[in-house]
């Protein structure tokens, strides 16, 4: 069984998530944007063996702690899609611009593309490329527990911003309709900020994509 814990980090209250296999206690951390000591305390408290870093995209609040964490624990960095390379390269500048602790650029151990999979313990998760908020944004779908970690693509009652460099509003809407909705109305998603919701609820009531 896969379990997860969401830990809001940074001044932006970004939803960093720990995901682990409760049989082996092997764990991955999704979007370690900062507050690494809090994240590692949660890992230690549960006796987890942190083995991977997974990234949905490379904005500072999602990726700011990645380089340091990877170096500190010799962890592989998995994702995002190569379209976000310029965001990764700009992490030091992003950290200065938004008042974050110094962040370092890095090269992911493995880039991800649409249709790829990642593994954790005995479990396989699906990767969907969902551009629009950033060109290299990916989503991690866990069909075994009907969960999806969607970063800043979709929120409860809202959608991701597209006014950043290489953002694209229509592309974001297409990503949601074509790649998230087919995961099923019952799937609960963990957004990059704010509370969880389900795809069915957002299809019915989200003012930006409801009824699609």
UniProtKB/TrEMBL annotation:
<dbReference type="Pfam" id="PF00753">
    <property type="entry name" value="Lactamase_B"/>
</dbReference>
<protein>
    <submittedName>
        <fullName>Glyoxylase-like metal-dependent hydrolase (Beta-lactamase superfamily II)</fullName>
    </submittedName>
</protein>
<dbReference type="InterPro" id="IPR051453">
    <property type="entry name" value="MBL_Glyoxalase_II"/>
</dbReference>
<feature type="region of interest" description="Disordered">
    <location>
        <begin position="191"/>
        <end position="212"/>
    </location>
</feature>
<dbReference type="GO" id="GO:0046872">
    <property type="term" value="F:metal ion binding"/>
</dbReference>
<keyword id="KW-0862">Zinc</keyword>
<keyword id="KW-0378">Hydrolase</keyword>
<dbReference type="InterPro" id="IPR001279">
    <property type="entry name" value="Metallo-B-lactamas"/>
</dbReference>
<dbReference type="InterPro" id="IPR036866">
    <property type="entry name" value="RibonucZ/Hydroxyglut_hydro"/>
</dbReference>
<keyword id="KW-0479">Metal-binding</keyword>
<dbReference type="GO" id="GO:0016787">
    <property type="term" value="F:hydrolase activity"/>
</dbReference>
<feature type="domain" description="Metallo-beta-lactamase">
    <location>
        <begin position="13"/>
        <end position="193"/>
    </location>
</feature>
């Amino acid at each position: 069984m896969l379990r997860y814990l969401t830990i809001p980090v940074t001044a932006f209250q970004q939803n960093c998530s720990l995901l682990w296999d409760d049989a082996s206690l092997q764990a991955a951390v999704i979007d370690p944007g900062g507050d690494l000591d809090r994240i590692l305390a949660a890992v230690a408290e549960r006796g987890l063996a942190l083995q991977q870093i997974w990234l949905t995209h490379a904005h500072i609040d999602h990726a700011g702690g990645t380089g340091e964490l990877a170096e500190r624990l010799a962890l592989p960095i998995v994702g995002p899609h190569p379209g976000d390379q310029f965001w990764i390269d700009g992490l030091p500048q992003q950290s200065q611009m938004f008042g974050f602790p110094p962040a370092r650029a890095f090269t992911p151990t493995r880039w991800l593309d649409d249709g790829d999979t990642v593994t954790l313990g005995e479990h396989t998760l699906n990767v969907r490329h969902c551009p629009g908020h950033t060109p290299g944004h990916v989503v991690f779908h866990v069909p075994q527990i009907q969960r999806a970690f969607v970063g800043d693509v979709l929120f409860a009652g809202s959608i991701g911003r597209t006014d950043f460099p290489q953002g694209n509003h229509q592309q974001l809407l297409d990503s949601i309709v074509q790649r998230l909705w087919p995961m099923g109305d019952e799937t609960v998603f963990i957004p990059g900020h704010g509370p969880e919701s389900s795809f069915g609820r957002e299809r019915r009531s989200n003012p930006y994509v409801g009824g699609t």
